[in-house]
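We modelled the chain as a single entity of 184 amino acids. Its sequence is:
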Amino acid sequence: MAQRIFTLILLLCSTSVFAGLFDAPGRSHFVPADQAFAFDFQQNQHDLNLTWQIKDGYYLYRKQIRITPEHAKIADVQLPQGVWHEDEFYGKSEIYRDRLTLPVTINQASAGATLTVTYQGCADAGFCYPPETKTVPLSEVVANNAASQPVSVPQQEQHTAQLPFSALWALLIGIGIAFTPCVL
């Protein structure tokens, strides 16, 4: 019995010794996208600054940055000039390194308005991250000529007000299905 326990312990220890053989010795470890491209924002009334702190050895693609307002109106965003770079993913394209700050002018934003920011970047070592999407909550901003414009409810909110209570329907259908016999 003691010999079997000794053999089992020896077998377990020997397999853990060889586990390191299957690691690639020169393999680089990539950081998560939130660390490679640290995103932050700051709003002061009509002025919003979107900032990316880009880690050394990583870069953002200029043409992959998209800003989409929801329940808000913004001025056209002018992306600054980037540095030309060629890689196997997008060929020759403009990129940003180190730090990127985008000023965005908010013309009008209702309560609960957001800005969806999508961006994509890669590492110099040859790894490309999938597109990242961040949602920026906006403070309410009144347009300069808001006194002359009537306030209207967006169409999406009007449609949701007319929908029946869907959770109740889902519960009733679920109960109905639960008591239906399975006939093949």
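As a brief sanity check on the tokenised model: DSSP finds four helices and nine strands in the chain. Confidence is low (pLDDT under 50) at residues 146-161.
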